[in-house]
Specification:
Helix 1 crosses helix 3. The protein is 21% helix and 37% strand. A 5-stranded mixed beta sheet has the order 1-2-3-5-4, with helices on one face. The longest helix has 13 residues. The chain is α+β, with helices and mostly antiparallel strands. It has one domain: Phage tail protein-like (STM4215-like). A hairpin with a 4-residue loop joins strand 2 and strand 3. The chain is elongated. It is built from 3 helices and 5 strands.
């Protein structure tokens, strides 16, 4: 699933300079990423047995978008500076368009469940989107072995 999400974002959101698994990169003093970036984490908060060897799983995909500070958006700022400061919303709008309703052969259509902002001391602007999809997972090994 991760590789499919990366391919979708790369093809639809060219502004993203770095897409990676979220391994805590933004916790480092000098994160090893390029901006803007998208860091992806996948959890399975709900798995239900459909049979002895098949489960229906809900996948929760959390994407943290990080942007370098680009200026002020206050009403006192010149319009060009305001526009530059707000370019991150263009990236978020494109990612919404890329993922909302998108699915794969293995996973149902994605649905955004929330979008929040992280408050940080380092002045990075970090926006967190949580998406959900579902899929069937089947045991592929012979259970008798």
């Amino acid at each position: 699933m991760y590789l499919a999400i990366v391919a979708q974002l790369k093809s639809k959101v060219s502004e993203l300079k770095w897409i990676d698994v979220d391994e805590g990169q933004l916790s480092d003093e000098n994160p090893p990423v390029s901006y803007p970036c998208a860091l992806i984490d996948i959890d399975y908060p709900n798995c239900t047995d459909e049979s002895e060897y098949i489960q229906l799983c809900t996948a929760r995909v959390t994407i943290r978008y990080a942007f370098k500070p680009t200026g002020q958006a206050s009403s006192a700022s010149p319009t060009l500076i305001q526009q530059k400061s707000l370019e991150r919303w263009d990236v978020l709008t494109k990612t919404f368009a890329a993922l909302q309703g998108w699915g794969t052969n293995e996973a149902s259509s994605f649905s955004r469940r929330s979008q929040t902002n992280e408050r940080r001391r380092d002045k990075l602007k970090v926006v967190v989107q949580v998406w959900e999809t579902s899929f069937e997972e089947e045991v592929v090994d012979d259970p008798e072995v």
